[in-house]
Amino acid sequence: MTKDNSTEQKILEAAEEVFHEKGYDGARMQEIAQHAGINKGLLHYYFQTKDKLFEAIFSVALNRMVSRVHIILETEGTLEEKIDLIIDQYMNIVLKNPSLPRFVITELNKNPDRFIARHINKDAKNAFSAFLISVQKEIDKGTIRQIDARQLLMNMISLIIFPFIGRPIMQVFFGANNEEFKKLLGERREHIKIFIKNAIKK
Amino acid sequence: MTKDNSTEQKILEAAEEVFHEKGYDGARMQEIAQHAGINKGLLHYYFQTKDKLFEAIFSVALNRMVSRVHIILETEGTLEEKIDLIIDQYMNIVLKNPSLPRFVITELNKNPDRFIARHINKDAKNAFSAFLISVQKEIDKGTIRQIDARQLLMNMISLIIFPFIGRPIMQVFFGANNEEFKKLLGERREHIKIFIKNAIKK
DNA sequence: GTCTATATCATGATAGAC
DNA sequence: GTCTATCATGATATAGAC
Question: How large is the average pLDDT for residues A59-76?
């Protein structure tokens, strides 16, 4: 590793932290520079504009949010195996990186067209097709009830991700508890698996 | 209505639109003034600071997100009735105001402590207690399986709200379709009711 | 109450020395 | 490559005329 590379790395780590925390509008180049232990001038030397730096961070984050799911959806296996895999692996990602979903979804909403187009590619379509076939197979076998595969996938993603985004609102609903919420999130992995399987079984 | 009131009203409507769309950091006083058909000076005459104007908008939004649910949770009735009521009424709110959940949750996440404390009151605790009792009653009767009431409530809220926040990411997963997504949202009300009831029944 | 003009400040970005 | 100093812009907020 050259020293260039090391500085660039520090910048990327600092930028990720600040952008994830504050979003594009709330992030300050000054703060990113501080976190990286350098000054603004150097920051602009590596990434000319805030926009370019943001793009670097955002594309990694978006990829982290979708690629794993795409791979799993296409994997050979029964529907039940796919469901368990998605829940396990996706939970791992968001537990390790709790601010990721909020960041990606907030920024995606601010500028949907800008990013969606480049990510709706053949991979996405193939992945979903594979999942749809798995679902239809089980319906035909009679092991699960008639259900729209898109709604099912949306339900799974909703149940996994929402608690990480909606945490403060859920705390309002429950009435306080901060420690308990963490415990709930930990128990949630198995809870969701059972919940979904019950919901679809015949 | 006096003329004062009318101008204040115009400001509030404009501010709601801009804040909901762009968030606190992205919103500009200039843009709010334009939308209201006035100038920045007058805007500051009514609401001295951006912060105060934001507070006025945000408190209404947060209230819209939680009060209805609190009321329903406390209403007399069976668990099934409560579930249907929450889904129906909450769906109505977000369908009428699709940007509401995104706005509230994004801002809440940026500054959790600032707002949560004042909303975790006796109402919240009573509401959730009432729901918890309803759930326990059904478990005791043997009509539903053993389940954590907090997880169940979180699941309901997740299934209702997430699609409105996570729409762009779901479009990536599905591979495009914009019109279809609206159709999915419309069909979702009944879908969720069935999904949840199947998930909890014994 | 409403407008125009202006003060003040913070931010993204650049220039230039080392 | 890295730093300091500075520019240019745009945003909140205020002052003052009408």
Answer: 92
pTM of the model: 0.94
Beta bridge partners of B201: B144
Query: Which nucleotide is closest to B50, CA to C1'?
Result: D12
Q: Chain B within 8 Å of A155 (Cβ-Cβ)?
A: yes
Q: Measuring CA to CA, which residue among A23, A20, A48, A43 is closest to residue A32?
A: A43
Kindly report the CA angle at B90 between A88 and A184, in degrees rounded to 5? 30
The residue in chain A having the minimum alpha-carbon distance to the alpha carbon of residue B169 is: A105
Rounded to the nearest angstrom, the minimum Cα separation between B10 and chain A is 24
Do B111 and B184 lie in a common domain? yes
Asked if the Cβ of residue B41 lies within 7 A of any atom of strand C, the reply is: yes
CATH code where residue A141 lies: 1.10.357.10
Q: Give the domain range for residue A193.
A: 58-200
How many folded domains does chain A comprise?
A: 2
B-proximal residues of A, 33-72, CB under 8 Å: 65-66, 69-70
B31-73 pLDDT per residue, tens: 999 999 999 999 999 999 999 999 999 999 999 999 999 999 9
Q: Give a yes or no: residue A53 inside a domain.
A: no
**pLDDT of A1 higher than 60:** no
